[in-house]
Amino acid sequence: MNHEAAKAALLIEALPYLREFYGQTIVIKYGGHAMKDEALRRSFALNIQLLRYIGVHPVIVHGGGPQIGTMLTQLGITSEFRQGLRVTDDATMDVVEMVLVGKVNKEIVNLINVQGGKAVGLSGKDGVLIRAQKLEMAVERADAPPEIIDLGKVGEVVAVDTTLIDSLQQAGFVPVIAPVGVDSEGNTYNINADSVASAVAVAVGAKKLILLTDVPGVLDPDGQLMSSMTLHQAVHAMEQGVITGGMIPKIKCCLEAVDGGVTKAHILDGRIENVILLEMFTQGGIGSEIVAR
Questions:
Q1: Can 194 be counted among the known catalytic residues?
Q2: Which of 29, 153, 207, 264 is catalytic?
Q3: For residue 263, is it within any domain?
Q4: Is 262 a domain residue?
Q5: Whose CA, among 122, 160, 166, 283, lies 20 to 30 Å from 188?
Q6: What is the pLDDT of residue 285?
């Protein structure tokens, strides 16, 4: 097959997926190397723009841990981590909100807009988009009661109000959401971006949840990619110690999304250019997916 014929075949291969995803919402958690490498940043923005042109409605939730860490260092504020989560006192929360909402969020919005898109930045405070509560964490100990860890202004999602997202999508805009939430008393909380993406995906009835990471996907003990798992298989893999470490919370977010009605959840390698398009519009797909059954 010559080069021109191969390109035409690729378009034909994409046709059923273009039909499947037309008019559907997908939620993408954007972070890691894909957010730092300039070529990948441009590729991501072009992927989002292409999705909009073909009738898909992307919603973006972003992280920003490294940027927060850099700013805290510059300001001389020391961070402590417990169970992989940053202990967030009032001073740290001010910096978190400033960096996520005021800097990272607007950089992503500008990135998409420069490529011809129409993006609008939001935090969980806008329209009470993300209702949060303080995250209570208890760590089991062998011969003692569980240790209660106070993480300060670290929160978890209680509810998502999609009114603002719906309005922006109807007007042709791409919502870009910073993972900051607020409780009923107006207190601000820093929330894990994967968790926010999962909750948003359920709330908007997304067809897909995509988590961009810095690994190829979920790997088995032999280092082989586990390309597809059902809810039951994913839970079993965690129970058997096949899935470990930092992948566990990501898998749990995917499980919550699929259990909440999202058709598929994906863990993709954000270091691969155009990885979103490769997953959505090629027969083989890429990365790891979790489906209901």
A1: yes
A2: 29
A3: no
A4: no
A5: 166
A6: 77
Q: At 79, which CATH number?
A: 3.40.1160.10
Q: Which of 32, 63, 121, 155 does the annotation list as catalytic? A: 32
Predicted confidence (pLDDT) per residue in 37-93, tens digit: 899 999 999 999 999 999 999 999 999 988 998 999 999 988 888 777 788 899 999
Over residues 92-123, the pLDDT tens digits come to 999 999 999 999 999 999 999 999 999 999 99
| DSSP count for the chain of H helices, then E strands | 11, 16
The mean per-residue pLDDT over the stretch 171-181 comes to: 97
Measured distance CA(250)–CA(264) in Å, rounded? 14
Q: Is there a domain that residue 219 lies in?
A: no
3-state helix, strand, coil in the chain (%, to 5): 45, 25, 30
Q: Is 84 a catalytic residue?
A: no
CA distance 212 to 117: 20
Please pick, among 124, 194, 217, 287, the residue that the annotation labels catalytic: 194
Is residue 211 a contact partner of residue 247, using CB atoms and an 8 Å limit?
A: no
Residue 239: HSE in the Cβ half-sphere, 13 Å Cα cutoff: 6
Closest by alpha carbon to 108, among 119, 98, 97, 99?
119
Q: What pLDDT sits at residue 1?
A: 64
Confirm whether 235 is domain-assigned: no
Quote the pLDDT of residue 17.
85
Residue 69 falls in the annotated catalytic set: no
Is-contact 196 130, C-beta < 8 A? yes
**29 catalytic, yes or no?**
yes
Rounded to an integer, what distance in angstroms lies between the CA atom of residue 246 and that of residue 137? 17
Out of 65, 69, 127, 285, which one is annotated catalytic?
A: 65
65 in catalytic set: yes
22 in Cβ contact with 56 (< 8 Å): yes
Annotated catalytic residue: which of 153, 207, 208, 250? 250
Q: What is the pTM of this model?
A: 0.93
